[in-house]
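Board notes, transcribed. Complex of a protein with beta-D-mannopyranose.
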Amino acid sequence: MSKVKILGGNLPNIPWQNKPKGNTDVIWRHDNNPIVDWNPTKKCARIFNSAIVTFGNGFIGVFRADHKIGKPQLHVGRSKDGLNWDIEDEEIHWVDEDGIEYQPDYSYDPRIVKFDDTYYIVWCTDFGGPTLGFGRTKDFKEFTRLENIFIPFNRNGVLFPKKINDKYMLLSRPSDSGHTPFGDIFISESPDLVHWGKHRRVMTRGGSGWWQGTKIGAGAVPIETTEGWLLFYHGVNGTCNGFVYSFGAAILDINNPSKVLYRTKEYILTPEKNYETTGFVPNVAFPCSTLQDADTGRITIYYGAADTYLAVAYAEVDELVKYIKENSELVSGDAEEYR
Ligand code: BMA
């Protein structure tokens, strides 16, 4: 029984491995990574930054799949154990609210939350430039595309899994049209998932180190705990050989998540393994979703590796929250009061 409580359901059947003996890290990798390898379907060359949720007795996911023509689209996959995936070769086909077919030119980096019986998906899409696409499904067979929630340019849209003070909340990272060389995490609120405002900057890039010096972006849907919202996010270091994506973790105030309380001074996972350092884009570890079990405090993290593979890592909420609090450094500009 964990001391820090995850507020959510018990999911005793999520993928899990105990921390290997002698390992002193706060998060540890699945010993059989990657769980999705090159060329997973006829059409798809690489599957990586993906959103996994529970569904029925098993698991379902919306996967970012780069097609063999080199463009990303979203694909549905199903799994009984969360590790072995059966991914559809055909991408998701969207129909808008008027019943008219709509297919984005490209789609990447999905995140999913469930409100009542409906799953909402936020991803990065083309809308005269990259910004946040938005849609919903109940059954992962029929998908309704909703109005894009933001104008270009934006990426890494992550909804909170419940309303806070009766408002939907969304993290995002305003950006530019290309491989953005800057970026901080902002939060916006909405009464209806249509109109968004009251934007605040939550967390800024930088700090005393370099691993998150270039840009940061929200990763998985925040996890509600008795200590605040637990957020995995990515931090980018610009090197002479390109960007390096690591991930860190933060705790946001439970009633006012525009306020960051703690964030890790050091990364908690950085590309080290071959499947993270070598691939289509080397040196990328990009968290996009988690599954967690309230009873045991186990957290299973799905992350994209080297823009090529899907990989899994594990953490325990007590140890992780303690680590974040004891190894925290806020960055100038974090949780700035609105003026
Ligand atoms: C970002 C996004 C991610 C990708 C990362 C590393 O800009 O495109 O999907 O994993 O770059 O290439």
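The pocket of beta-D-mannopyranose is lined by residues 49, 108-109, 179, 245, 281, 284, 286, 304, 307 (CB under 6 Å). The chain is about 5% helix and 45% strand.
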